UniProtKB/TrEMBL annotation:
The keyword Acetylation does not apply. This is Unannotated protein. The chain crosses the membrane at residues 12-30, 50-71, 83-105, 138-156, 163-183, 189-207. InterPro entries: Aur1/Ipt1 (IPR026841), PAP2/HPO_sf (IPR036938). Pfam families: PAP2_3 (PF14378).
Length: 216
């Protein structure tokens, strides 16, 4: 693994991080937009039975820092330039796919009263609900970026097993957090997982061209 980056690689790393920032900005643009139609509510019978568990605001709010900064840095330092590039471009391309869905198929999750007055309930109401509109539901941005991060961490687990496994478990809690905080419906999780795996493997085959062992 090469540890010293060339000037062009350093420029690319900076450009990728800028792209990740812009990816988050596009999410916010669609989340704050006004729509001429009523966004679709994709609630299933099981969604109606899921309670609010506000302690999940902890992994939920940690998501962007970990997915946008920590995991890409680990991918670069542990996996190398190409592994970082796959990780970063997966986030950017994945968000572009989500933006297309948000632009043409906007969904929402109606707010429900928070049944408590604990510290975590306060954070959920004033920090999460207070700054995030109930839009951009399908596919879930949190799930897409989290699953991409899990795949990236899985690939470097042999180099830093303890750090990788702790972060993979942490990211795994973000998936249920999206529904336990009533920010998403279950179908949004499936959509996010599909987008994450699709873009990650597409970027990996495009950039790293892995050997599948086919003797043709």
């Amino acid at each position: 693994m090469k540890t010293n980056l060339s000037k062009s690689e350093k420029f690319t790393v900076a450009a990728v991080f800028l792209g990740i920032i812009l990816a988050f900005v596009t999410y916010e643009i669609f989340n704050k937009a006004d729509y001429a139609y009523q966004p679709l509510i994709m609630q299933g019978w099981l969604d109606e039975k899921i309670p609010i568990i506000s302690i999940f605001v902890i992994p939920y709010l940690s998501f962007h820092l970990l997915a946008a900064v920590v995991v890409p840095v680990l991918s670069l330092r542990l996996g190398g330039f190409k592994v970082f590039l796959v990780n970063g471009l997966s986030i950017i391309v994945g968000q572009l796919c989500l933006d297309v869905a948000y632009a043409f198929f906007q969904t929402q999750v109606p707010r429900t009263p928070v049944p408590g007055h604990s510290f975590f309930d306060w954070v959920l109401v004033h920090v999460v609900y207070g700054n995030d509109q109930p839009l951009n539901g399908f596919p879930s941005n949190h799930v897409t970026w989290s699953v991409i991060s899990i795949i990236a961490l899985w690939r470097v687990r042999g180099i830093a097993p303890k750090t990788s496994w702790i972060l993979m478990v942490w990211f795994s809690t973000i998936l249920p957090a999206t529904v336990f905080l009533h920010q998403h419906f279950l179908i949004d999780i499936y959509g996010g997982i599909f987008v994450a795996f699709s873009v990650y493997w597409a970027m990996m085959f495009l950039i790293q061209k892995p050997n599948l062992g086919l003797n043709l």
